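Possible regression after last week's pipeline update?

I re-ran a chain I had predicted before the update to compare outputs. Posting the input and the new output here so someone can diff against the archived version. Not blocking, just want to make sure nothing changed silently.
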Amino acid sequence: YEKYLVAPINEEQKVYILLGLAEIYKLKLNYKVANNYYGKAKEVINLIDNKELEFFHHVKMAEFYRKRGLFLEADGQLKLAEKKKKKKNINDSFLAMFYSRKAALFTEHFFQPDSTLFYANKALTLAKKNNDKDLIFYSTLEIAGVFEEKREYKKSIQYLEELIESAKRNNFVQQETDAQINYTRLLIKDNQLKKALDESMNALDFS
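New output (post-update):
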């Protein structure tokens, strides 16, 4: 990323590079440096006056705040993105991320499973349209979580079984691990103890 930052093709590419660097430092939990790159990206966006990238930046900042547990700030960013969405047609990829972040916030902060389900389904529909396998996975995982919250364990288990198979097909190691952990936990909740034990042994072999 830093190599391409020296001579970007255009200002839009520069924004994506800066956001990519912010993402890297966010994952490293170096929030100060990440925030610096988010700020630089915003400066470029303001210069080129690109409303769609402004929307995308708000979504990225919402995730940045959510990851740090700053839910009110995350909600504020999504509200700003919502205003942009009303004034400008936004591409499906950005919209899918927006709805995904809305779903996560309703899970972790507002604790409203019906709203989580609504937004996760919107994210899933757009993710499938764009063939975004990563977002398909995590939107479906969010939906499985809603049915767990509603104590519809068998329905949640069904979603998780589909996710595990999908992760295997796409060689998504981390996603398969996430789904497997949730799957075993749900089997225990549903009193399928022998199957849960078998899955635990499978998970050990997988690791």
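Follow-up from reviewer: compared with the archived run. The radius of gyration is 19 Å. Marking as no regression found.
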